[in-house]
Amino acid sequence: MERSISLFEKDIKGEKVSIPNGYSAVIGKEKRMHLLEKRIDQIQAPDKKTYEAARERLRNQARPAGSLGALEEVGARLAGIFRTLDVHLHEKVVVTCAGDHGICAEGVSLFPSEVTPQMVYNFVDGGASINVLARHAGARVRVADIGVNWDFEPDLPIFHKKVRKGTGNFAVEPAMTREEARQSIEAGIEIVEALLEDGPVHILGTGDMGIGNTSPSTAIIAVYSGLPIPQLTGRGAGVDDEGLRRKIVAVEKGLKRHRPDPKDPLGVLSKVGGLEIGALAGLVIGAAAYGLPVVCDGFIATAGAMLACELAPQAKSYLFASHNSVEVGHGFMLKYLGLRPLLDLEFRLGEGTGAALAMELIDAATRILADIKTFEEVAIQDAQSGR
Known about the structure:
By secondary structure, this protein is of the alpha/beta class. Helix 10 packs antiparallel against helix 12. Strands 5-4-3-6-7-8 form a 6-stranded parallel β-sheet, with helices on both faces. Strands 1-2 form a two-stranded antiparallel ribbon.
C-alpha cells in the first residue's frame, strides 16, 4: 500500500516542514512563559471514527477475533491518531534527556554523578545500549542536556537545553525553582518542535540518563499513589541493602520537608523532581500537541509522562508504555496511568532502550491493521458470524 499519512507543508523560519495530521505548526517566536499552556491547548483528541473503523476491520480479519491481543488495540489507537487505517512509521526518533541530581549527596546511587556526562559522550559516539537497540529498530537517537553538571562543547551534536547544572538535594532543599521546572518542561516541547523543523517525525520515544534519577521518580509516584516509600523504592543501578536504606530515608525526608501537592504537578516537579524528568514531560506534551504518538521507556520516562498527563490529561491518548521495569515503583506508575506495557523483559537500564524495542512491535501493529485481509477480501466464510 502507498503511504497515506496525512501531511502538509508549513513554512517555519523560512523552511518547509511536514507536520502530521493537519495540526497547525506554530513553532518558535513565542514567549517562553506561555509555551506550555499554548501547547496544552493545542492537543486534539484522536479521531474516534477512524479508531472505530480500525476496530471493525480488526474484528473482520481472516483469523479468530482478538487473536493478536494487545497489538490490535495499539493499531487501532494509531489509526485514530493518524486518521487513517494505513499508518506508516517511517521516521522514528528516541530522545534521551540527561540531567544530574543533588540527591546523590545522600548516597542513593551506586555510581558517581561524573558518569552522566561520560554517557552523554557515549550516546553521541553511538556506543551505548540505546544506540544499538535504536539502530535495530530503525530509529535515530538524539541526546538533550537539560541539567548535566558539565560544560559540553557548543558544537557537540546534542540539544543544548541546560536549565541549570543539576538539581538541588531535595532531601534538604527544593530540587529547583518553579520557573526552572517550567523551563525544563518547555525544553522538551522545544525539542519536539526542533525535530519537526528538521523533517517529519512519525513516532517519538522518550529516554533518560541521570545518575540518581530513580530517587526523584520514586518521590513522584509516592506523591500520586500515597503508598509507603519502602513499597515504591527499588535498587536503581544496583545499590546494596545499606544504599537502599539511605535511598528510602532520603526520599522520605524530602517528601516530609516539602509536602508536594499532587494537584500542582509543576510544584511536584520543582520540589522533588528532576530537570530531565521535566523535559520528558515536555516531550509527551509536545508530541501530543503535534499529533505524534509517543512511547515512554521505563521508570524515569514514565515519571515524566505522569507529570505530563497531570498537566494535560488529553496527552494520554498519544502515550504508549513500552515495558514494565524491574523498578518496583514503575508498575504503580503504569497502573496509575491505566497503561498496558508491551514488554516485560526485566529491563532497568533507561536511556530509551525499552522504547526502541517497543517501536518494533508498534510498527508491526500498523501492518496487522492494514495488511491482514478480511474474510470478505479473501472470500472465506467467517465462522464467527456465519457469513
